[in-house]
Fold these 2 entries.
Entry 1:
Amino acid sequence: MGRHPKNQPSKTSVQNGSPTISTYEKYKEIKRKYRELKKMNNELNEEYGRAIKEARKCKDERDSLLEKLATNYVNEESTSFMDHQRRLKNPLIAYNERPTTQIARNIVNDIPAVSSSSAAKRGPGRPPASSRNVKAYHVDKDTNGNYVLPVEVGLHTILSLGTVVYDRAAYHNDRYIYPVGYSTHRPYLSMIDPTRDTIYTSTIEDGGDNPRFVVQAADQPGNPITASSATGAWTPVIRQANSIRNRKHSNAASGPDYFGLSQPTVRKMIQELPNAHKCKNYRMQEFEVHPIGTRGRGKTNRKAKY
C-alpha cells in the first residue's frame, strides 16, 4: 500500500525543493490534447460537409433561376435607330438604360456553353455530347455574309471578330478560338473610383507564338493590362476593383467570360470566320439560333439549327 506499481514512474518528483511534472504526467497531458484535437477535427469535417451541401443547394437554386430566365424572357422594347447609335457610341448609357427584361437576358447569355460541373462529370479529355445543342441568338449579316458590327451580346458590345490564326497552336484550343483583332467592350467596376463603373475594352493581339490579351479601362487611358491569357488580363482588374471597395470577394476570374468568348452567340460567330475549320484542336459546336425578342411557339420562334 502506498507504493508505486512497477515500471510506472512517479507522478511527481522533487528537485531543489519544488515538485516537477513527471514523464507520465506529460504523456497523459499530450494524450488528452490529442483527444481534444481529434474531436475538433471531426467537428470541422462535419461542418465542412454541411457547407458543401449548402453550396450545392445554392448552385442548384441558381441554375434553376437562370433556366427560368432563359425560358421566360420577354420582348425587349424597341429603340429608334438614332437612339441605338447613341447607345453604341456611349456604352455606359446603354448599360444604365437597359430595361429589366434585357438585364435578365444578359444574365442568361453570360452562362458558358458547357458548365464546369457537366465537364467534371464527363471526365478529362471527353468531348461534349453532340446531341446537346447550345442556344445562341440571331445576329444580322450584310449582303456579303459578314456579321453587322458592332452588336450587343449580353453585357458585351462586340466591336470586331478579328482574324483566325489557324497555323499557330496557341491561338485556339478545344473550346475557344482566339482571333487576332477580336475586340469587345463591357462595363465593370472602376479600378480607381469606388463609386463608379467604367467601360473596359478587351482585345486579342498578335504576340508571335502566343496571343496577347489586352484590357484597357476607359477611365485610365494609356494604361493597358497585358497578359498571355484572358484570365491573366482580367484578374488584376477584379483584384484592384475589389481592393478599393474593401470587398472580401474572390478575385478569381474566368477570362473567356470577361472577354465574351464563352458567350454562345459569340462562339457561333467566331467559328463561322474564314479558316476556323482549320483549327485542328477546336471542336465545332452546334447551335440552336433563337430570334431575339420573340416568345411563344409561333412561326417567329422556331429554332434554326446551324
Note: The first strand starts at residue 12 and ends at 15.
Entry 2:
Amino acid sequence: MAAKRRLVDDLLRGENHQILNRSSRGRPEACLHPVWREKVIRWYFSIVSALDRQHHSPDGPFNRSSVHVTTALLDSYLLALPSELALRYKHDRAAYQLLATTCLLIGMRLTQHDQQRKSQVPSENENSDGNDHPTCQLKRAKTHRDHMDQADHQDVDAGAENGSPSHGRPHASCSSTTMVAIPTAATILQMSAAPKTISESKILTMVREVTGSRAFPRSHVITALDYIRVLTSSTQEENSDVKLTQEVAEEAYRLADISLTDVSLIGCRPSVVASAAITLALFRSHHGSRDMVSLRQDVCATIVGEDPAFQVAVRKVEAKLLAAAHQATHAHAPRQMQMNPPIMHRATAHLIPLEE
C-alpha cells in the first residue's frame, strides 16, 4: 500500500474511533456559549504564540496544533456532560474560564506527546517496502492519560518555588520536543493575568475531572491539520493525488484555524473540514483557472475515494468557511486567528477575555 494512502487511512480509522465515542447530543449551541468559546479560542492562539516566541522551538508543542487539540478537548468535555451540568458552563463565566485554562494545559501536553511519538515512527521511505506497516501510532498508553494529573503535580512541585515550569529529564531516544517544558498551571495563570477566582489548586482539581471524563480521548486526537499535513509532506504517487505546496498548505491551515470559531462545525468530521479548507486553498492558488467542483472531487478522492455524500458535506463546510473568512477579513483585527498575533502590553495581552 502506498505510504500516503496508509497515512490517510490511519487518520480515518482514528477519526471513526473519535466519532463512535462522541456524545450523541443534538445542537451544540444549546449547551455552549458561542461568544465565550470564540474569545477563548482567540486567547488560546495568543498564549501559544507567546510561548512559541519565548521558547523559539519550531518543533515544540507551542503551535496551532495545540490550539486545535485543546479546542477538541473543551468541546468534547462539555458535550459529554449532562445537560444541567453543561448549562453551568454557559452561564458561569468563572467556571468556563477555569475549564478553558485547564484544557489548554492538557492540550499542550497531548500535543507534545504526539510529536514525540511521531518522531519515533519510521519515515515514509523506510515504510515503502510494500509491507503494510502502520505509520501513525494512534494508540497511546492508557497510563499516560490516566496519570496526566499526577504528572502535572510533579511539574508543579518541581517548579513551584520559583514559579517557572520544571525541566524534566529527557529520555535519550526522544526528540527535541522533550526538551521543551510545558508551562505549569501557575505559569499559565501568571501569563494570563487571570482573575482571583482561578487558582492553581482549582486547575489541578479540574485536570483530574477532565482526564477522568468518559469524553477524554484515549488515542491521538485527529484534527483537520493532520490531513493537511499528510497532503503537504507526502510525495505525489499517482496522477490523481493532491499535493499541496507550502503556500497552499499555509492557506489551508489558516482556513482550518478559522473553522474553530464556528460553533456549527462542532461535531463535523476533521476530514470534511480539512477537505473544504484544502479545496478553497487550491482554488485561490489557481486564481479561478480550475473550477471548485473538479478540485473538490480530486481532494475528496485523495482522502476518502469516490463518495458523493462526503463531497456534499465538504461543499456545505466550504460555504461556512468562506463566510467566516469574509467576516475575519473585514473585522477590526483581520488576522488575529493566525499564529503570531500582534504583541500587546503584557498585563492585558493574554487576559482571559470573557468580559462583555
Note: Residues 123-178, 332-350 have pLDDT under 50 and may be disordered.
